[in-house]
Amino acid sequence: MEKFCHFFAFDAFCVVLAHKKAFSITTNKEA
Questions:
Q1: What is the model's pTM?
Q2: Per-residue pLDDT at 31
């Protein structure tokens, strides 16, 4: 169960990271 929680947290972190990256790319295109 602990391993699953760690994996879930890591997965959520990756999603946030990818979202931030995509957001910065779109803002750079608009600028």
A1: 0.48
A2: 62
